[in-house]
Design a protein that fits this description.
This protein is of the alpha+beta class and 494 residues long. Among the domains are: 143 residues, Acid Proteases (Cathepsin D, subunit A, domain 1, Beta Barrel); 196 residues, Cathepsin D, subunit A, domain 1 (Beta Barrel). It contains nine helices and 29 strands. A hairpin with a 2-residue loop joins strand 24 and strand 25. The longest helix is centred in the last third of the chain and has 20 residues. It starts with 11 loop residues before the first strand and ends with a helix. The relative contact order is 0.16. Belongs to the peptidase A1 family. InterPro entries: Aspartic_peptidase_A1, Aspergillopepsin-like_cat_dom, PEPTIDASE_A1, Peptidase_aspartic_dom_sf. This is Peptidase A1 domain-containing protein.
Amino acid sequence: MSTHPHITHTPIRVRRNPNYVHNGTKSYVHLMRKWRFNPTIEAQESKYFQGKQLVQQGKFAPGVGGRATTVTRLKKKIGPSSEKGKEASQVGLVEAEDVQNDTLYLADVAVGTPPQIFSLDFDTGSADCWVWSTNLPKKTLQDNPGKAVYDPKKSSSFQTKDGATWNISYGDGSTAGGTVGTDVLTLGGLTIEAQAIELANNLSQSFIEGEGSGLLGLAFSNINTCRPDPVLTPVDMLIQQANIPKDSEIFTCKLGSWRDINDELDHGGSFYTFGFIHQPTLDFCGVLAANIFYTKINSSGGFWQFSSTSITVNGKVSKRPRSNVSIADTGTTLALLDDTSCYAIYRQIPGAKYSSSYQGFIFPASVTEKQLPVVSIDVGGKSFVIQKEDLGFADAGNGYIYGGIQSRGDLPLDILGDTFLKAHYVIFDVGNKRLGVVPRPEQKQNLSTPGNGSTVASQAEESQTAESQTSTSKKGFFSRLLGKNKKVEKQAEL
């Protein structure tokens, strides 16, 4: 790939959220909310499900005006049922406390002139770029003094997009929305002029909770929620403004794990790059750029979607329908597969079972590395292995681990989130509509119970996290970012 005057070849450091708490059920409910699917395993006993709800619209009073519409909402069963297989006696709406509203990975970006710095969730499963703003209700801002909040009045390069609005809604009825403007956005040394910035004017509680100050979508612009017209994502803007060369219209992702902070040479470091492939990481993986495996993706639905027609468990290949597809989603912590594939995996783990109480597959924490199966998933015709250490996601209590692979319910496609992505260096080739996957070697599989080792890793990063939120000057931001990114490059070169 050619060099380009705008590209600094500096990775954007991604840090693990020090306050993130692994909770299997809450993470699964978050995915039910995001992807709007219903459970298909022991559905009658499942606490969380999608149900119909009557909603009044328009101005009305009892018996006066308005109209009723039936919508689908994520609901929960309250209280035990009197008999196995029977519904619980009461049904209520899902509350913010039922859902994992925090994000595991955050990266700093700068918006405005002078730059205002925000820790955002980089998400290949969505296409909005939104931030907390001073347009939010005063009480919301007062109740969250630690949040970085974008103030358009303090940016000389901000321009309002008259009449433009945005709105994100989840299956539990929670929403985020507001107005739209344009401003300068700095992404890993690349400057994007007149990037559409979605300013939050209102946030449901589930959007308020969590460490970050917004989201940077890396899916395709056709699913952006801005109205009356969708706006271009930062990646599409980089391409349009020729900030990255024609033969390098890519971004790449390496997501590390808290498990690797003491066991691996890269110490679980994570980063994104925009406009180039990180050569030290390829060298570490022992792969030449010419030998990277790529598969074509179908972006018509707005996602990084590709064919996935088999899984392999301990060498036994299980064929799936030729029409089966998967999505690569950095905004999903787990991996969601069809029920048959889930059972094929967990039947090979001693003592594993499906628990309707946890609404997921769990297995004994005493299971050894040798007892865990080798699981690989087909990506466009080639199988890629999930690390054994990532088959466990969270402490489920009572000596059990909540699995990192779970059922996709009635969703018609797989979601390959961090459980899969952490094992690979992934190239998202926007220009050629293809996905590249490079397996990353590991010296050791760390089977520490999630929630213990992750706490240690978080504490090790707390000082860096605090530092990243202190400086708001342009000089301070770039010097700090350069120092962090050089550390990432040094780790990758080991």
